[in-house]
TrEMBL record:
NCBIfam families: PRK06498.1
Chain coiled-coil ranges: none
Protein's organism: Litchfieldella anticariensis (strain DSM 16096 / CECT 5854 / CIP 108499 / LMG 22089 / FP35) (Halomonas anticariensis)
Name of the protein in question: Isocitrate lyase
Cofactors, names only: Mg(2+)
One example GO MF annotation: metal ion binding
Binding site for Mg(2+): 184
Keyword tags: Lyase, Magnesium, Metal-binding
Family matches, as Pfam families: ICL (PF00463)
Reaction catalyzed: D-threo-isocitrate = glyoxylate + succinate
GO terms of biological process kind: carboxylic acid metabolic process
Length: 532
C-alpha cells in the first residue's frame, strides 16, 4: 500500500473517531494535501538528500560514467524550472543536483546591491537561498501532483478505470523535484565558531552538502581572481570539524563536506603555520614559503621574520600587508598536500579550483592524491570564467602541433574568431568540449560537474534578446515569437503562469475549505484557458 493510501485510511479512521465533529473533513483531500507536501522541514530534506548523495558517490566508485551534475541557481524559481525541465526531458532527476553559488549570492542577492565574490554579503542570505530553493522545489511537487489528482478526478467522472489506474500509479510512485544542493559557505564567514553556526543554519534549511574553501575569510576572493590568500591546514581543518559537528548535532550523519583548495592560484598565506618537529604538517606548509637564506644576525632587519626551513635559517618574504609569499611553481604540490590532508581529516569530496579546463592537468594532480587516498573524488567547477572556446581550440592546436600536423593556417592567439567555427580544428574542439565531463570523470576522478553561475548569464542573454526586439522594430512580436510561441510549442509549463504560481492549487484548497461556496479563479473568464 502506498503512503497516499495509508494516509487516506488513517485520516478516515481519525475522522470516524471524532463522532461527527469532523464530518466536513474529507480524508481524500487530507491525503492529497499530505502527498503534495512530502517534506515537512529542512532537516527532512537534508537527511533525504544526503542519503541520495552517498548512494551516488558509491555508484561512481564502481562506474565513473555515473557522475553527477548541477547548475547554479540564484532564485528558487530558476531552480524549480530547472528540475521541471529535467523531469520533462529525461523522466527522472537521478544524479542531477542544484548548486548554490556564493558568487551569485554576492552578485544578485545581497541587500547592499551587487557585490564581488569576497564574502561581503550577508551570511544569512546563504541559508535563505537554500530555503527558498527548496520551497520552490516542494511547490513543483505540489503543482505536478495537483494536475495528477485533477486528472484522476476527471477519469473517475468519465468512468475510465484504466486511466484511473495509470494516474494512481503515477501518484503512488511520484518522484520528487527535491534533489541535493551543494551549498557554498565560502571560507566560513569568520572563525570556526562562525562557520559552525552558519553551517547549522544551512543544514536546517535543507543543505546536505557544504563546500568550504581554504582561503582567509576576511581576505576571500573569487577563485578566478588574483590576490587569493590561503590559511595553514590546522586552521582549515578546524572549520571542516565545525561543519561535521553541525551535521552530527542535527542528526544528518550522512552529511557531505567538500574541501576546496585555492592553492593552485594562491601565491600568499596569511600566517606561518605552527610546527613542532621537522616534517609535520606545519613544517610541510612552511616549506613552501619563499625567502632568502641568512647566515648571521646581521642579515636580519627590523621587522623581519625568520624560520627554520629544511635545516636552514630563512628570512621569509613578507609584504606590507603582513602576508607571506609562497615560492613560485609550488601550486600543484600545495594542492596535493591540501587535498590529502583534508580527506584524511574528515572531508568527503575535493574541489580543486583551476585556471583552465584541462583533463590532463586535473588528472595529474588527482593521480598523486589517489596514490595516498585511492577513492578520492572531485567536485569540479566548469566555470563561466573560462573561455571554453579559446581554451579547447588552443588545446587542439597544441596537440596537432605536437603530432607534427601543419597548423600554419591557424592563428593560435586568435582562435576565438568566428572564422574558425566551421574548420576541422573548431569542430574537434567542440567535440572535446562536449566530451569534457565524460572524459574528466573517467580520467580525472570528477564525481560532480557543476557550472557555478550559468543562470546569471542566461538571464542576461535572454533579456538582451527580448529588449533588443521589443524596444526595436519587432515590438510585441519579439515577445510573441521569441518567448510565448516557443513556450507553447516546446511545452514550457510557465506559459500558464497563473497555474505555475499556484492558482489551481489555491482553487482546490478553496473547494476543500468552502465546498460549493468556493469562489475560484480558474473559471471560464480566466485567460489561462487560451493555452489549452
Amino acid at each position: 500500500m502506498s503512503a497516499y493510501q495509508d494516509d487516506l485510511k488513517a485520516i478516515a479512521q481519525l475522522r470516524e473517531a471524532k463522532s461527527g465533529k469532523w464530518d466536513n473533513i474529507n480524508p481524500e483531500y487530507v491525503a492529497r494535501m499530505k502527498a503534495q507536501n512530502r517534506f515537512k522541514t529542512g532537516l527532512d530534506i537534508a537527511r533525504y538528500t544526503a542519503k541520495i548523495m552517498r548512494e551516488d558517490m558509491a555508484a561512481y566508485d564502481v562506474d565513473s560514467s555515473r557522475y553527477t551534475q548541477s547548475l547554479g541557481c540564484w532564485h528558487g524559481f530558476i531552480g524549480q524550472q530547472k528540475l521541471i525541465s529535467i523531469k520533462k526531458h529525461f523522466g527522472a532527476t537521478k544524479r542531477r543536483y542544484l548548486y548554490l553559488s556564493g558568487w551569485m549570492i554576492a552578485a544578485l542577492r545581497s541587500e547592499f546591491g551587487p557585490l564581488p565574490d569576497q564574502s561581503m554579503h550577508e551570511k544569512t542570505s546563504v541559508p535563505g537561498l537554500i530555503e527558498e530553493l527548496y520551497t520552490f522545489l516542494r511547490q513543483a511537487d505540489a503543482w505536478e501532483l495537483n494536475h495528477l489528482f485533477r486528472d484522476l478526478e476527471a477519469a473517475k467522472e468519465a468512468g475510465d478505470s484504466a486511466k484511473m489506474s495509470e494516474l494512481q500509479d503515477k501518484i503512488d510512485n511520484h518522484e520528487t523535484h527535491v534533489v541535493p544542493i551543494i551549498a557554498d559557505i565560502d571560507a566560513g564567514f569568520g572563525n570556526a565558531e562562525a562557520t559552525y553556526l552558519l553551517a547549522k543554519r544551512m543544514i536546517e534549511a535543507g543543505a546536505c552538502c557544504i563546500q568550504i574553501e581554504n582561503q582567509v575569510s576576511d581576505e576571500k576572493q573569487c577563485g578566478h581572481q588574483d590576490g587569493k590568500v590561503t590559511v595553514p591546514h590546522e586552521d582549515f581543518l578546524a572549520k571542516i570539524n565545525a561543519v561535521r559537528y553541525a551535521f552530527l548535532e542535527l542528526g544528518v550523519e550522512d552529511g557531505v563536506i567538500v574541501a576546496r583548495t585555492d592553492s593552485l592560484g594562491a601565491g600568499l598565506t596569511q600566517k606561518i603555520a605552527v610546527t613542532k618537529e621537522p616534517g609535520d604538517l606545519g613544517d610541510q606548509y612552511n616549506s613552501f614559503l619563499d625567502g632568502d637564506e641568512i647566515t648571521s644576525a646581521a642579515d636580519i632587519d627590523n621587522g623581519d621574520v625568520v624560520i627554520k626551513q629544511n635545516g636552514k635559517l630563512v628570512k621569509v618574504k613578507r609584504f606590507a600587508s603582513g602576508l607571506y609569499q609562497f615560492k613560485q611553481g609550488t601550486g600543484e604540490d600545495r594542492v596535493v598536500l591540501d587535498c590529502i590532508t583534508s580527506l584524511q581529516n574528515g572531508a568527503d569530496l575535493l574541489w580543486i579550483e583551476t585556471e583552465k579546463p584541462h583533463v590532463g592537468q586535473i588528472k595529474g594532480m588527482v593521480d598523486r592524491i589517489r596514490a595516498v587516498v585511492p577513492d578520492a573524488k572531485l567536485v569540479y567547477n566548469n566555470s563561466p570564467s573560462f573561455n571554453w572556446t579559446l581554451n579547447f581550440r588552443q588545446q587542439v592546436f597544441d596537440a596537432w602541433e605536437k603530432e607534427g600536423k601543419d597548423v600554419s593556417v591557424y592563428d593560435r592567439a586568435n582562435l576565438m574568431s568566428a572564422e574558425y567555427d566551421d574548420t576541422d580544428l573548431g569542430k574537434l574542439a567542440d567535440e572535446w568540449t562536449r566530451n569534457f565531463q565524460r572524459d574528466a570523470s573517467r580520467e580525472a576522478g570528477i564525481f560532480h560537474h557543476l557550472i557555478t553561475l550559468p543562470t546569471y548569464h542566461t538571464a542576461a542573454l535572454s533579456t538582451d534578446n527580448l529588449a533588443k526586439g521589443y524596444f526595436g522594430d519587432d515590438g510585441m512580436l519579439a515577445y510573441v515569437a521569441g518567448v510565448q510561441r516557443r513556450e507553447i510549442r516546446e511545452g514550457i509549463a510557465t506559459v500558464k503562469h497563473q497555474d505555475m504560481a499556484g492558482s489551481n492549487i489555491g482553487d482546490d484548497h478553496k473547494e476543500f475549505f468552502h465546498g460549493e461556496a468556493a469562489l475560484k479563479a480558474g473559471g471560464k473568464d480566466n485567460t489561462m484557458n487560451q493555452f489549452g
